[in-house]
Amino acid sequence: MLFERISILDEHFSLIREGYVGTRGDRIAYVGAERPKEDFGETYDGCGKVLLPGLVNTHCHVPMTLLRGYGEGLPLDRWLNERVFPMEDMLTGEFVYWGSLLGIAEMMASGVTSFSDMYFFCDDIIRAVREAGVSANISKGVTVFDSSSFYGSDDYGKTCALLETYAGKEDDIRIDACIHAEYTSNEQIVREVATFAQEKGLPIHLHLSETQKEHEECKQRHGGMTPAAYMDSLGVFDGPVLAAHCVWVEDADIELLAAKGASVAHCPASNLKLGSGVAPVAKMLDRGVRVTIGTDGASSNNNLNMFEELTLAALLARGTGYDPTLLPPSQLLRMATVEGALAQGRKNTGLIREGYLADLCVVDLRKPHLRPVHDVLANLTSSAQASDVCLTMARGKVVYQDGVFRTIDVERTMAMAENASEEMKRRLV
Question: Is the CB of residue 47 less than 8 Å from the CB of residue 5?
């Protein structure tokens, strides 16, 4: 496909106006200000539109679309224990498949081409990912409330099965290790997952210092160690880590994250909804921590709209830091694209660069709320909505265009997800 006469956010996150991008197979084959001489087949008129790298949602629990709006008005601990965990006990693989497909459709329609997920029934999530045509890092959530060991557990067996089935075969699916959180694990589990991840060369996906209660109770349990310090003492940060939230991290924690090369998934909407607080993103960025953008699950957000997260991330940083220069548009867009891809271990996507995967999205600027266009990047991060995405291409294949889902029967998906959610509530009673 040849995108022609379209504004392009190039690999330096500068704007090329009325440029050209050609894709061949699953790769970007041409980027430039001049029309290429070679034929790229179908052409796409980009007049009045802007081409971005596909967005990367670095923290999600995609099947939780089935719990959207369920458990409103509760803090995290009560939300989990009184509403989410009991409802999740009613899940089946088939329910997870339809919930995943619904969430992926929502993300594709808002320009997301890859996401990182922590959940269970992972094979059913992967089935949905592959049918949709996007990419994902998948980890089997490890949650224990006793003195169990990781090795020999069901979580260990399922993670090994995922690795055997998917790891190293197709790059669309990557398998990560997982520690749900300090408060849902024990010392032996954490140490063993860290060892396992090192042996297998896997990143670890975990929740870290999401709430003040979690953070302070960890210090009480572990001799004053914060969740970050505790995890580090057990070897977690000896390899790549994607730490979600990090709302209550202390200065020493930030230094640790930077020194260990960990990545943070900033989920502003979820943190606000659950009353968890505001992550010190500007401070983390200033200390050299890679910060990316995530939505969290649709039950704690309640949507998977990455454009909303960009706006909130900027407003929160500037408002709490009393500085309107914090998180400028180019930095926000990097966080939502190439930085997210790198946090996933994906080094061949996230930029509009020749040879990179053709993971792309198009935003239509010809909307009342996006005019006039004094600054395209500012409009993208402060004014644009998910509904302004008019095309999403994943691995060189158009999966969504102008309201049409090319790979998902969205009407059937919505109906089946609705049925699954209702059945879960019936079983709960």
Answer: yes
Contact 294, 339 (CB under 8 A): no
Which value, in Å, is the radius of gyration of the alpha carbons in the chain?
Answer: 21
Q: Which of the listed residues 294, 316, 343 is the one where a domain comes to its end?
A: 343
- Share in percent of the chain as helix, strand, coil (round to 5): 40, 20, 35
Residue with tokens 């349990």: 221
Residue 24, domain member (yes or no) = yes
Q: pTM to 2 decimals?
A: 0.97
Asked if residue 426 belongs to a domain, the reply is no
Residue at 364 is within a domain: yes
Q: What are phi and psi of 128, to 5 degrees?
A: -65, -40
Q: What letter represents residue 204's amino acid?
A: I
Could you tell me the two tokens for 356? 């990179």
- Residue-wise pLDDT for 275-288, tens only, equals 999 999 999 999 99
Measured in degrees and rounded to the nearest 5, phi and psi for residue 54 equal -60, 145
Residue 429 predicted with pLDDT over 80: no
SS3 15: strand
User: Per the structure, how many domains does the chain have?
Assistant: 2
